[in-house]
Amino acid sequence: MIRFEERVAVVTGAGVGLGRSYALLLASRGAKVVVNDMGGALNGTGQSSAPAQQVVEEIKAAGGEALANYDDVSSAEGAQNIIVDAIKNFGTIDILVNNAGILRDKSFVKMDLSDYEKVIRVHLLGTVFTAKAAFPIMREKGYGRIVNTASSAGLYGNFGQTNYSAAKMGIIGFMNALKEEGKKYNIRINTVAPIAGTRMGEGIYPDKYMKLLKADLVAPAVAYFCSEECTTTGEIVLAGGGHYAKVQVVESKGIWNDPTEEFTPEMFAEKWGEIANMKGAVTFGNATEELMTVLQHLSG
Ligand code: NAI
Questions:
Q1: pLDDT of the residue at 108
Q2: What are 261-272's pLDDT values in tens digits?
Q3: What is the edge-to-edge ordering of all strands in the sheet holding 65-69?
Q4: Who's near 81: CB < 8 A, 6+ residues apart?
Q5: Is 73:12 a contact under the CB 8 Å cutoff?
Q6: Which residues contact ligand 1 via a Cβ below 6 A?
């Protein structure tokens, strides 16, 4: 049985939707949970303490331990306050779930740069800021679990979401690098790309499917990544509507051309079919592994 006794968790954006579901599940299995939510609208405007407070009351009513925090993850100071609240009230931080998010969708031509920046700030920098405050503590104690939130919009692209997609894919790049730094300290970092009928899903997913796309179906994947039992790091899982699948960046076998010979754009065009053939594609644990295969090939 996966349990979280003696573990302290921070879940950002946990006042409603997916974050609420994660906070309730972690708390029901023994974690002390900091329920962070600044309680704004879907576009990130406004503020309210009610959503976080309500989730804390729900957790307490069920016999769990929780604390509400209303800080804004998109400011370095706000993000730091969330982690400080965990330490002050519960003594440490073991688990960080970066879930807070907003939308400001528009086609790229119509999108104001301020909307671009705000979305990057909440999703990508919000994830960096909380990790920046939590990671040194996890490193020192030799234990930590971080779960970040991506999206199929970032993985595969979506019309009108250049800001959101860039932020979400940035989070994956951040995880890929930070996992290397966490490995020797037993800090595991994974990413979930959810699909859920929350307010963010309204108007995107057809009404008749909203009920089946339950946030509670995503939460078990997140809880596993938060657990001591989690053996993986640097993984991406897509979770929604009962579907769970691993997503990976892969590289085709490609071609090897003699590096002492000339290679022209026409030759690239001619070889493109072969270069892009994904049969036998491989993946790499980190950038060094990938570089080594190139260098090994060059050294014969
Ligand atoms: P939601 O809109 O229901 O909940 C997001 C929560 O984050 C809200 O309570 C909001 O107040 C909070 N929040 C926003 N900005 C904040 C900030 N600066 N500081 C603190 N809290 C803040 O959205 P939902 O669906 O629960 O989304 C959760 C995460 O999952 C987001 O990162 C979202 O991008 C991601 N996601 C959701 C999908 C879905 O199908 N619902 C699809 C793909 C990704």
A1: 98
A2: 999 999 999 999
A3: 65-69, 32-36, 8-11, 95-97, 144-149, 187-195, 236-240, 243-247
A4: 69, 71
A5: yes
A6: 12-13, 15-19, 36-40, 42, 44, 51, 72-74, 99-102, 122, 126, 149, 151, 194-196, 198-201
